[in-house]
Amino acid sequence: MGTTITFKRPDGKDATGYLANAARGNAPGVVVIQEWWGLQDQIKGLCDRFAVAGFDALAPDLYNGVVVPYHDTDAANKEMGSLDFMDATKQTVRGAAQYLARNGAKVGLTGFCLGGAVTVIGSTVIPELAAGVAFYGIPPEQAAKPADVKIPLQGHFANRDDWCTPQVVDAFEKGLKAAGKTYEFFRYDADHAFVNEQRMSVHDRQAAELAWGRATDFFKKHLG
């Protein structure tokens, strides 16, 4: 349904990504950020699904063509560990947001795992955004403080998660509440990456569909 495109980062460098367009013209945009596996087909499928829901969706390739097989957690950890999160967010992700906003459309940001953390960082540093939805990812406090979040933020988290732990989620939510931010957090009795239907060991269809409905409703509310 979608296609691979090249777009400009704010620093003038080229970046690539997967773009799926909604059927209607001048649709609101959603930037979709990969898990630590890279720009997998599953993420491209989510872009297609956002397009069906009425959004232009662009998933920038933060690993520059590297896609890690699902079983190779060591390689995924190595790729994520070598990623410059601030450069990826302020340049590649912001460039994707600028691309979607070029005709005046409102733009949101969402991401999963690694992409959830990037979404939270983006909510503090990307001025083109109107809303964010993070799935089971929160960055270290030095990368993004709750008080610095500038847009309405929705979060979806797993109660059985040893990476983005319930304690981390609770602490970030407490910070958002104390700072008077517009947010809503949802927790699911599921495992990390429960939305990924290609990983049957962790996928929870009921939780995934509930989260998807909440996310698309949130974007429709804030992006139009």
Automatic annotation (TrEMBL):
Domain Dienelactone hydrolase residues, every copy: 17-222
GO MF annotation list: hydrolase activity
Superkingdom, taxonomy of origin: Bacteria
Stored SUPFAM superfamilies: alpha/beta-Hydrolases (SSF53474)
InterPro entries assigned: AB_hydrolase_fold, Dienelactn_hydro, Dienelactone_hydrolase-like
One Pfam family in the UniProt entry: DLH
UniProt cross-references to PANTHER family, sorted A to Z: ALPHA_BETA-HYDROLASES SUPERFAMILY PROTEIN, CARBOXYMETHYLENEBUTENOLIDASE-RELATED
Annotated protein name in UniProt: Dienelactone hydrolase domain-containing protein
Organism from which the protein derives: Afipia broomeae ATCC 49717
